[in-house]
Amino acid sequence: MFELNRLSEAELESGKYTKIWHGPQHPGITGNMSLELTLSGDDVVECKTHVGYLHRGFEKMMERRTFIQNFPIVCRIAVPEPTFNEYMYAAAVEELAGIEVPDRAQWLRCLNLEMMRLASFLMWLGGASGSFGMNTVYQWTVTHRDYMLDLFEEMTGARIYHMYITPGGVRAPLPEGFTERAMSVMNGIEKLLFEIERVVLNNHIFKLRSQGLGVIDPAMIDPYGIVGPNARAAGLARDVRKDSPYLVYDQLDFEIITGDKSDAYNRTVQRYHEMHQCISLIRQMLEQMPTEGSFHADLPNVLHWKIPAGQTYVKSECTRGEYGYFLVTDGSEYLRRVTIRGPSYTHAIAVMEKLVVGVNIADVAGLMVSLHTYPPEIER
Amino acid sequence: MKLKDLTSPFYVWQRAFEKPYTQGKPIQERIGAHAYRGFHINDIEKCVGCGTCEEICQNGAIDMVKIAEKASKKGDSGLVPRFDYGRCCWCALCVDICTTGSLGMSNEYTWASDDPDSFRFTPGVDETSWQDSEHNYRRHPDYNLLKLERPEMKVLDPDEGLKSFDEVVAGYDHQQAILEADRCIECEICVATCPANMDIPDYIRAVREQDFEEGLRILYKTNPFSATCGRICTHHCETDCTISTFGKPLAIRWLKRYIVDQIPAERFAEILQDEIVENGQHVSIIGAGPGGMSAAYYLRKKGYGVTVYEASASGGGMLRYGVPSYRLPDDQLDKDIDYIVSLGVEVKYNCKIGRDVEFQQLMDKSDAIFIATGLNQPSSMRINGEDHARVLSGLAVLDDVASGRDPGVGRNVAVIGGGNVAMDAARVCRRLGADVTVLYRRRIVDMPADKEEIHEAHEEHVNFVLQAIPVLIEDADSKEQVTIQWGEAEMVAEEGKRPRPVLQEDRMHTETYDSIISAIGQAGDFSFLPQEISDQMNQHWGKFEVDERQRTAVGKIFVGGDIANDVADAISAIADGKNAAIGIDKFVKDLQ
Predict the structure, then answer these.
(1) Which DSSP string corresponds to B412-470?
(2) Residue A18 domain-assigned?
(3) Using a CB-CB distance cutoff of 8 angstroms, which residues of chain A are in contact with residue B144?
(4) CB distance from B389 to chain A under 8 Å?
(5) pTM for this structure?
(6) Which DSSP letter does residue A325 get?
(7) Which chain A positions have a beta carbon within 8 Å of B97's beta carbon?
């Protein structure tokens, strides 16, 4: 069932098919990658994905920078959600260097990650509705994402690339009055979600176009390495936050949300519920957050910091599923090797090539967005 | 299909009555958050140009540049960071690691210009609207990338220390040394501050990398008295260490000591491997103290035949006869002296110029002469009765103790003075079992002695009487005692000078002691110089005037150490010796 039926050279030359390039300059937020689509009429019969438009060589670059110098780089690996990269890099370095992170820093990190998840979902939601022609919704969600960015600006000193989670802890505690302002933004987003339910989820046209689009068969999940909301929408209760809790997730009250069928519509519903879950987690953390204590561990002198030889794989549940960092050190001041594995790698390449077959050309962007992929994360 | 699915999207119309979210820039301006990481600001008064920002920047966005507004001086390179906003990624690591806290980032974030070069700017120097912004990103005080705390040095318990002349400072253990070496940020501000310009960050790196042989090579390249300086150096480097703005300065002296302590004296020659190619020239040196022996070392390495004339029975000068062994054990000094001698330096001990050899003989046979005889004559207190038999000089007491003689100070001693000799004499007397009172005419902050010496003297129960001016010394009832009259002093401010103590004649005190030790300063003894030569060498306030290479007005005579420089400490004498060696080499070669 996982074999792709590739057309032969003769068939392609037969004149029955049209070949078009979808991307890299496509207004749907599929980002800087492209799909080489072979169409029969309006329907896709074959797809080849092409990456390489965004390769910045991060992994190689990191081998030539000191451990502290890498932390401002990693956030740039996945543009819409830098924080997960910051956390995983820091966690991996801390593990290899044997650094214990103070409790308060764990809470602040966790809050930062959940805020990031919510902001990322908001942007995704705009894209998802936009790619089905509902561009007004995009304006709403991006506005509320901007309010989230305001919070990030206060908390971390920057809007997009926060560079807040450093090896050893975080850079600063919460500013005064932050909790109240964050709570008010959460209330605003909750109200927005209420509107989203009416305007998007209960929209007949949206349902018509998205239901049954890009169905992920539960049997595909493991062979294809499908993770995150894409897998949970199909009924698989798999979430790194629960399965191997990190930071303070074991002290928070939440359950894994699952659906019964992973198509474009249900994946939207899945993320809609997960946004509510994010809000709940953020509220819980703001209430339980310790307000005293250290938020940064003592590091060795970062200008000539050497980490003993070792290797580690650190994973976390990012917005799109399990995200992992594999770090190898050799006892020097530099990383020997780093490999970064984001969920988009499978979702945007193997899964996309499989699911897009038979889809109407007008729904290709919608399908791709429903998988929630970020090309910058494919090309480190 | 439900009816709701058709009707509910019309909910969107409700939004038509809401206020827009957007702001009407440029009429409305959105101000950045308080700690937003915007454009850089720099307080150039605070900035010492250590360049740590440049070092940590992963984008190469920072260059340290020279500016007209700021001159380089001790403790300040005079450079300031220039930022290239074509490269900056706003990570603020430069702000986080700034050693002085001069760097910050304002919350300003818009800047438009048609000149791309204007985005390469020097904050604090180039005029910007955000330099004085109240809202700016600063490193949070509870988060620090610099290591501010120094491992505590183990010292002998003061009461235990008083029982012997054993060394007070124990030295770092291995872990402490590595930890301490790790704190160095390699800014090299200290290199310029050290009179001998020792390669301090390099030998600290050697400690960090535990390559002590390399460390030893680095040490002896710039300082032939490294073993000695590792114990008693006045460490100007530590005073200007950039870490000291927020924390304790690097224990540079103790790290130097740690390197030397790791290597036994007999391995010095094997590790240092100085190859000497004789050049047939000869230099005479008067005085085997740090200045003379340092010149001997560098001249010998340049191939000169060197003869050192020393009046005492051993080398080291003040280091041996003025510094007590609980601060500098003789075996450490011997490490340095023996190594220098092992290079082929000839030292004539117990040979006083003017008594055993005439100065003119040296003039005749040497291509150059270096004089570093030091200040070995106590200065006069200029009060009546100071020639009393129970009035001893601090130098004589220290000399006696160093030579194994009993100075006979008695049980109750007054030490007059506030310099290192006074502190050493007081602490030596404590070790000889006496109660000691230090009389000093100014305040404790005015004392020229090292802070550590004053502190340790306090710890050893030396009694300090401050703002006390001796007026008269006279016989006491017993022949074994002496009486001193002293008056209290008021500090009177003087414009452009340090405050002056003024005697209050209505507040006089009289005390009787077993002995009084005068340690108010020293002077040089130049009686060995023939009058016509002495006349030609210009003196000023008891010091010889020399050029930048220690050369006097008499062509082949070079002078260094306490009789030439105003600092009058060991490391300055060592630097003078090294400097004179360069000067002599040039002088001799120019003649050929």
Answers:
(1) EEEEE--SHHHHHHHHHHHHTT-EEEEEESS-GGG--S-HHHHHHHHHTT-EEEESEEE
(2) no
(3) 296
(4) no
(5) 0.88
(6) E
(7) 302-303
C-alpha torsion angle, residues B381, B385, B390, B392 (rounded to 10): 20
Residue A3 inside a domain? The answer is no
Closest by Cβ to B89, choosing from A72, A150, A301: A72
In a domain, A96, yes or no: yes
**Distance from C-alpha of A112 to C-alpha of A116, rounded to nearest angstrom:** 6
The per-residue pLDDT for range B146-172, each reduced to its tens digit, is 999 999 999 888 888 888 888 889 899
Comparing CA positions, the residue from B399, B387, B372 lying closest to residue B526 is: B372
Give the other-Cβ count within 10 Å of A51's Cβ: 18
* Interface size between A and B, measured as CB pairs under 8 A: 105
Interface-testing mutation among B8, B105, B175, with chain A (most A C-beta atoms within 10 A): B8
B88 touches chain A (CB under 8 A): no
pLDDT of residue A27: 55
Closest by alpha carbon to A267, among A241, A225, A234, A316?
A234
Q: Is residue A10 part of a domain?
A: no
Which tens digit of pLDDT belongs to each residue from A69-109?
A: 999 999 988 888 899 999 999 999 999 999 999 999 999 99
List CB contacts (< 8 A) between B143 and chain A. 169, 171-172, 295-296
Buried-exposed string B228-259: b where 16+ CB fall within 10 A, e elsewhere: bbbbbbbbbbbebbbbbbebbbbbbbbbbbbb
- The token pair that represents B108 in the structure block: 């300003």
Percent of chain B with pLDDT over 70: 100
Contact B326, B427 (CB under 8 A): yes
pLDDT at A203 over 60: yes
CA dist., res. A125 & res. A74, Å (int): 25
C-beta atoms of A303 and B140 within 8 A: no
Cα B29 to chain centroid, rounded = 52
Q: How many other CB atoms are found less than 10 A from the CB of residue A294?
A: 15
Q: What percent of the residues of chain A are helix, what percent strand, and what percent coil, each to the nearest 5?
A: 50, 15, 35
Tokens of residue B514, six digits: 């077993």
CATH of residue A360 = 1.10.645.10
* Count of the separate structural domains present in chain A: 1
The ipTM of this complex is 0.90
Burial of A208 (0-12, 13-18, 19+ CB in 10 A): middle
Predicted pLDDT of residue B381: 86
Q: Is A70's CB within 8 Å of B58's CB?
A: yes
Report residue A262: phi and psi, to 5°: -95, 85
Residue identified by tokens 């009816």 is B3
Please state, in angstroms and as integers, the Cα–Cα distance from residue A367 to each residue in A30, A173, A347, B419, B529, following that order: 10, 40, 11, 84, 100
Q: Which two tokens stand for residue B357?
A: 């050899």
* B92:A153 CB<8 A: no
How far is residue A335 from each of residues A304, B68, B392, measured CA to CA in Å? 13, 41, 66
Residue-number span of the structural domain to which A369 is assigned: 58-379
**Of B5, B14, B18, B242, which to mutate for an interface test with A (greatest number of A Cβ within 10 Å)?**
B5
